[in-house]
């Protein structure tokens, strides 16, 4: 399966028609149309209708389109899922996932409602029980929950339920983040970091993006359009990383070293596992440039 560009995933309130329209101009890699947290109970039905109509227009080319539904245990979940299946987004984001059966149940309903195979499942990892069942949840990607493609960290809910303090370095959260990353990678899943709440603190937001990227996240979920640009930049390979990757590739491409297991690059010993890393950096860099160029062309 082709790896997608998912540096930035912006939540858009499903009850705000103007926001859904404006989303067409925002250079986020993914747009999450939210029917859950961002929508008041008395606005759920209207939000569901206008989100699904917006998705059906297919006017968001160049972005991955995701609908976050309400949990199936709520009064709105079943209707949300049925409407989302009919709208055929790229993915349906399931909140409050706690066990493998949560993924399997949604996958079965999607099959029953003839959702296209291209509509995948994204799972919110945001409860203490989810942290205890992380690998089992991720393992469903290999079985009946095979639509599962991505974990989204719900750090706000996780902090609320565990009562940890969200400090600047997120030290209390790191074991859970790393456990989810390991489980995701073991099953070929992508993973997105949680949101940053202070819209005025771009420095702090950038710092948390850097941390997420260092941890191995593919990107970050966002709550405001002004967070998109720094997020896309930080989750893209830097010029220095691309230069290193090109040097490593060139060294192993040298016919004199074609069979070498270890070569010297800029004074450092580099193994073939580093060649794999270098190739991925170059692939990601090229893919990011293509995605940005395509959006600029369409918006221009």
From TrEMBL:
HpcH/HpaI aldolase/citrate lyase domain mapped to chain residues: 7-225
Cleavable signal peptide: none
UniProt cofactor(s): Mg(2+)
Keyword terms, alphabetized: Lyase, Magnesium, Metal-binding
Protein residues bound to substrate: 68, 126
Binding site for Mg(2+): 126, 157
Family stated for the protein in its record: Belongs to the HpcH/HpaI aldolase family.
Listed PANTHER family: CITRATE LYASE SUBUNIT BETA, LYASE BETA SUBUNIT, PUTATIVE (AFU_ORTHOLOGUE AFUA_4G13030)-RELATED
Name used for this protein in its record: HpcH/HpaI aldolase/citrate lyase family protein
Organism whose genome encodes this protein: Microvirga makkahensis
Phylogenetic placement of the source organism: Bacteria, Pseudomonadati, Pseudomonadota, Alphaproteobacteria, Hyphomicrobiales
């Amino acid at each position: 399966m082709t790896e997608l560009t998912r540096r930035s995933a912006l939540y858009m309130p499903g009850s705000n028609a103007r926001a859904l329209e404006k989303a067409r101009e925002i250079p986020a890699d993914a747009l999450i149309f939210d029917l859950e947290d961002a929508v008041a109970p008395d606005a759920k039905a209207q939000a569901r209708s206008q989100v699904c109509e917006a998705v059906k227009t297919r006017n968001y080319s160049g972005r991955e389109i995701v609908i976050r539904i309400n949990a199936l245990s709520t009064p709105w979940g079943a209707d949300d899922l049925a409407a989302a299946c009919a709208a055929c987004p790229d993915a349906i984001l399931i909140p409050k996932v706690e066990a493998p059966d949560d993924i399997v149940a949604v996958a079965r309903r999607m099959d029953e409602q003839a959702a296209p195979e291209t509509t995948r499942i994204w799972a919110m990892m945001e409860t203490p029980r989810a942290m205890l069942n992380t690998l089992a949840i991720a393992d469903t990607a290999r079985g009946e929950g095979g639509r599962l493609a991505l974990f989204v960290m719900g750090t706000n809910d996780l902090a609320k339920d565990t009562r940890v303090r969200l400090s600047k370095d997120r030290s209390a959260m790191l074991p859970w983040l790393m456990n989810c990353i390991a489980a995701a990678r073991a099953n070929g899943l992508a993973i997105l970091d949680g949101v940053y709440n202070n819209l005025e603190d771009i420095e702090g937001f950038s710092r948390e993006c850097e941390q997420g990227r260092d941890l191995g996240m593919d990107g970050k979920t966002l709550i405001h359009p002004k967070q998109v640009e720094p997020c896309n930049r930080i989750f893209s390979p830097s010029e220095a990383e691309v230069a290193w990757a090109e040097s490593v590739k060139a060294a192993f491409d040298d016919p004199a070293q074609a069979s070498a297991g270890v070569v010297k690059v800029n004074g450092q010993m580099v193994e073939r596992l580093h060649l794999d890393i270098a190739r991925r950096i170059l692939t990601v860099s090229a893919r990011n440039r293509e995605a940005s160029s395509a959006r600029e062309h369409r918006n221009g």
